[in-house]
Amino acid sequence: MAFLSDTLARVKPSPTIMMTNKTLELKAAGRDVIGLSAGEPDFDTPDNIKEAAVAAIAAGKTKYTSVDGIPELKRAVCAKLKRDNGLDYEPAQVSIGTGGKQVLYNALMATLNPGDEVIIPAPYWVSYPDMVLLAGGEPVIIEGPLETGFKITPEALEEAITPRTKWLIFNSPSNPTGAGYSWDELKALTEVLMRHPQVHILSDDMYEHLVYDDFTFCTVAEVEPGLYDRTLTVNGVSKAYAMTGWRIGYAAGPVELIGAMRKIQSQSTSNPCTISQWAALEALEGTQDFIAPNNRLFKRRRDIVVEMLNAIPGITCPKPDGAFYVYPSIAGLIGKTSKGGTLIDSDEAFATALLEENDVAAVFGAAFGLSPNFRISYATSEENLIEACTRIQAFCDGLT
Q1: 58 within domain boundaries
Q2: Are the C-beta atoms of residues 260 and 94 closer than 8 Å to each other?
Q3: Coil, strand or helix: which one is 238?
Q4: How far apart are alpha carbons 126 and 171 in whole angstroms?
Q5: Beta-bridge partner residues of 34
Q6: Quick one: pLDDT at residue 14?
Q7: Are 172 and 189 in a shared domain?
Q8: CB burial class (10 A; 0-12, 13-18, 19+) of residue 206?
């Protein structure tokens, strides 16, 4: 009898976390590594949110709460969805989890049976396929290549749907590409989904407030009200509010699904951190004035990185609509050899050699389901980004 579960053989550790850990190890050994692998804003959590957490502690709000969130936070989520997205939900339709990742995992665990298919556009967040596999489902990958702006087409979606399709996981703006779907582009996809009533939509809106230029965010149930009863709208406070470590995510959807997710959570983690819930309440209800200035800084950083990377022969870097990532192609570098003797036969080889030889940590594109690319996060200082891009240029200049 094997000690470890057979299910573990279906999944792999997160490549982004592995790269972040490798960066920390090298820094601890004295290397001057610039880490661009973590999807985490470098801004501090706003003071009003921190003060709300301190006030909660002082008031003794440190006990267990309802399994999937305090009523006050659920009502705030409903108000946020109405204010920002024009969506009407009641607190019974809302689940609060320990980060968006738990909310997604709960939904998949609560709904998937062996053989159920989940459509995942690539490039994708690294955890989507493995969560599907852990829940017993089968990921079905649709590629959104560079030529289509890293976005899937209605035709590709139609072709991927089968009688066994249970979910489409949809993320806009995207991690890892920052690509966002316009209203018309999303409407074209929802028209396909309306023809397939067995398909539910898991809309990951985590980067909703991190958008630039003239891009306007929209979400699935907002664009097509006919999909309201089949959509789980997921969001959280990690990115826009610089609260990654507070670990609060939320979702709104059908009552039956929310109840099933509550059952999963009741037998795993129970309630999210009480103090974090009160902090998240202030995030949603308090001032939003810091979001626009933060976005201006992100946009400036994005523009610096895109310009510097596009100046490197062999690299093509599209300008993203949102989030804080770029996903450049290295198609023009495949087949070359680094100064250290590494054959660049894949994006993984590129990222590994870049880290080992020039001390820049990025994540290889194969981890996100589309190669040959790499992802870097520009959620760090301009000084770090300029130095990192200079090192990338030096690395590429040394390829033969």
Answers
A1: no
A2: no
A3: coil
A4: 12
A5: 360
A6: 76
A7: yes
A8: buried
Dihedral over alpha carbons 310, 312, 314, 320 (to 10 degrees): -20
The predicted model gives 169-186 an average pLDDT of 98
Contact 170, 146 (CB under 8 A): no
Residue 270 has which token pair? Answer: 């129970």
Are residues 380 and 351 located together in one domain of the fold? yes
Question: Taking a C-beta distance cutoff of 8 angstroms, is the pair 158, 188 a contact?
Answer: no
Task: Name all contacts of 181-189 with Cβ < 8 Å and 24+ positions apart.
Answer: 181/151, 181/218, 182/215, 182/216, 182/218, 183/216, 183/218, 183/223, 185/151, 186/218, 186/220, 186/223, 187/223, 187/224, 188/154, 189/152, 189/154, 189/157
User: Which residue has 């689940």 as its token pair?
Assistant: 95
Residue 249 corresponds to which amino acid?
A: G
Q: Which residue has the tokens 């959807």?
A: 253
Considering the domain architecture, whether residues 76 and 109 belong to the same structural domain is answered as: yes
Residues 203 and 141 in one domain: yes
Summary mean pLDDT of the chain: 96
H-run or E-run covering 35: strand 34-35
CATH code (residue 24):
3.90.1150.10
Backbone conformation region of residue 115, classed left if phi is above 0, alpha if psi is from -120 to 50, else beta: left
- Would you say the pTM of this structure is higher than 0.85? yes
pLDDT tens digits, one per residue of 305-343:
999 999 999 999 999 999 999 999 999 999 999 999 999
User: Within a domain: residue 53?
Assistant: no
Q: Is 83 found in the same domain as 200?
A: yes
| 147 and 233 assigned to the same domain | yes
Q: What is the CATH number of the domain that holds 118?
A: 3.40.640.10
